[in-house]
Amino acid sequence: MGATRRPMTQFHFSLACRAATLLCAAATLMMPSPALAQNHPFASHPISYAAASIAPSHLSQAQLDQAVTDFYDAWKQRYLTEACGAGRYVVLSSTRAGNLTVSEAHGYGMILTALMAGHDPQARQIFDGMVTYAREHPTTLHDHLMAWYQNKSCADADGADSASDGDLDIAFALLLADKQWGSCGAIDYHAEALQVLADIAGGTLDATHAIVLLGDWVAPGDATYADATRTSDFMPDHYRSFFDAGANPLWNTLRTSTYQIVDDMQTNFSPVTGLLPDFVVDALSTPAPAPAFFLEADTDGAYSYNACRDPWRLATDYLMSDDAAAHAAVAKINAWIRASTGDDPSAIGAGYQLSGAVTPGTDYLSMAFVAPLGVGAMVDAANQSWLNGVWDLVASTPIDAEGYYENTLKALAMITMSRNWWAPEKVSGGCVSSGNSVCTDGGYITDLSATISGTTKGPGRQGLKLKGNVFFPGGIPVPSLTQGAQLLVEDMGSGASAIYQLTAATDPIPAEPVADCDARDGWKTTAAGVSYTNRSGALDVPACTPGSAAGLRRLRYRNGTGYDFAFDVQVKKWTIASPVGPLRVSLVLGDSAAAGSAGQCAISAEVACSAAGNSVRCR
Q1: Is 383 exposed, middle or buried (0-12, 13-18, 19+ CB in 10 A)?
Q2: How far apart, in Å, are the Cα atoms of 399 and each of 66, 98, 495, 520?
Q3: For 332-346, 434-448, 548-562, which range has the lowest pLDDT when averaged over its residues?
Q4: What is the mean pLDDT of residues 139-159?
């Protein structure tokens, strides 16, 4: 499935671990989050597919969309998790014992979250965390390609080099993000995509730009691998988007040569079935199926767990562009699979020889094969009944039936079959802002917990404790954490009313080294981090009005990485209304309104609240 890179004797190992522990279970992702804006929310169907294409016709559009969201929610809960540092996210691939994720899964996850924005309120937060994770795991040869495999200790393993499919999908996802949210926030998605594409062009395409190599580990002139390609890396719809993003003609060259290889293979090796093999050798001269065990398995020259993605990849290009070559390639596969199964989708096997013979041991049902063929069926109205049957089989197969790979391909195929796929060059873009009155386009507060004590007591007798992690996907945006601070706690269940605030509109925590109202007040830096302590009860120097500190006793930051740090807040003896909940917390790294407007800030997810005695706990 694009997971094995090269023979074990050639592996080189990286023992560096950028973070040692996984921080959060997948269920954490199901908490509510800020309703971040987007340009093309899921189910808005922003483009029309090719005029002659079809979609499942026996269900309403609303029913198709609902099936997608239901499955995506289940997929997200099972496979998406915060890991390897605050705010970073990965797709749990578990390809073998000890595996955390692979770049293939990372690319899929980034595409899914970009397309599901609007349904998933955490989509941008997750996407940005995935960008940071990829940045922190580059290959040894290219800064903007992702090392293909990480273990559960978060270390790059089995060779810190690339797998081409993961990087192609990551680049495509970044272009989706640029059109979904714009590139004015913490990450310039468009610029990031161009950096990835430059490294793909220099590291994973051959010198003539005619084929996608197996990874950046393939050296020029390599007698075994320099003339080989993987058919599941045939992504002509991506190449169109890449050309549009930078007008580099190499992507058109690659698209043309890709369809030539497809035609050569179907004409010479699968004239009856149209099937493509997992790997092609001699791709630059006389393309042919790879021999057994060329790279991964005895099925390297057959239609197996790599090539099963081909109908989805090729048909998507037709749906986006109405390309005749894409239609012709997929139509051959459609005609054969319908005939060979007697139009019964449940008879689709999990592997075939190019002749159409069933590969021994594959007489079982797999969504990795069924779901992509559903997308393939969309190219022609003659497949309508077949497509309807494939959709029903895909939608009714429970997530427990299979693993990460099958379920992820299913999610991507369901999005496409329901007409929710779109190409970045086909839609408008523009920057959308997220935030509130004190914070615009900043970072994220994760793992937040809040406790309000004394809720049954009278005014002035409440306390507040906050703790969590602050994550900036573009890196911490200030050189020093002692530049002042602002804090806003909103009760979202009461119209986002402020139940606690120290902001530029009231009295922010002042920057160092401004004079304090008491010698015990002020900032302190230690080996563990930075803290602000207030004992005077006042903040508004030089007036030092009693109570202007709003009960604040301490704000503390604990050292993290260049992207994150932990924080906690303690407030005592202040009037704090008991919230309806959920709560949202904003933290600004600076004492001016301009700091929040410049993105020097972070906002939490909305955390649910529950009462316990004379306290309210929110997390």
Answers
A1: buried
A2: 16, 22, 37, 58
A3: 434-448
A4: 97
Residue of 28, 17, 245, 241 whose CA lies nearest to 125:
28
* 542 prior amide bond cis, ω within 30: yes
Alpha-carbon Rg for the chain in angstroms: 27
Burial class (CB in 10 A: 0-12, 13-18, 19+), 249: exposed
Look up tokens 């022609």; give the residue.
380
Give the separation between CA 566 and CA 467, rounded to whole angstroms: 8
SS3 30: helix
Q: What is the mean pLDDT of residues 57-67?
A: 98
The C-alpha angle with vertex 429 and arms to 428 and 432, in degrees rounded to 5, equals 140
Question: pLDDT tens digits, residue range 372-391?
Answer: 999 999 999 999 999 999 99
Return the structure tokens found at 202.
Answer: 């220099």
Report residue 38 CA to chain centroid gap. Answer: 15
What is the per-residue pLDDT for 36?
55
Please determine, for residue 167, whether its predicted confidence score (pLDDT) is greater than 70. Answer: yes
Sheet holding 279-281, edge to edge: 229-230, 279-281, 288-289
The kind and range of the H/E element at 584 are strand 583-588
Specify the DSSP element, H or E, that contains 489. Answer: strand 486-491
For 507-572, give the DSSP string: -PBPPTTS--SSTT-EEEE-SSEEEEE--SS--STTT--TTTTTTEEEEEEE---SSEEEEEEEEE
Instruction: Tell me what pLDDT residue 11 has.
Output: 25
In 3D space, the residue among 449, 448, 509, 501 whose CA is nearest the CA of residue 483 turns out to be 509
Residue among 156, 121, 132 nearest 29 (CA): 121
Residue type, 141: L
Query: Which strand (E) or helix (H) includes residue 388?
Result: helix 384-396
Q: State pLDDT tens for residues 328-345.
A: 999 999 999 999 999 999
Q: Which helix (H) or strand (E) holds 587?
A: strand 583-588
SS3 126: helix
Give me 336's structure tokens: 């054969």
What's the chain's average pLDDT?
93
Terminal-to-terminal C-alpha distance of the chain: 38
- pTM above the 0.90 mark? yes
Catalytic residues: 104, 165
What domains can be seen in the chain, in order of their start residue?
32-426 (1.50.10.10), 443-618 (no CATH)
Cα torsion 501, 506, 511, 513: sign? negative
Q: What confidence tier does 3 reach under pLDDT thresholds 50, 70, 90?
A: very low
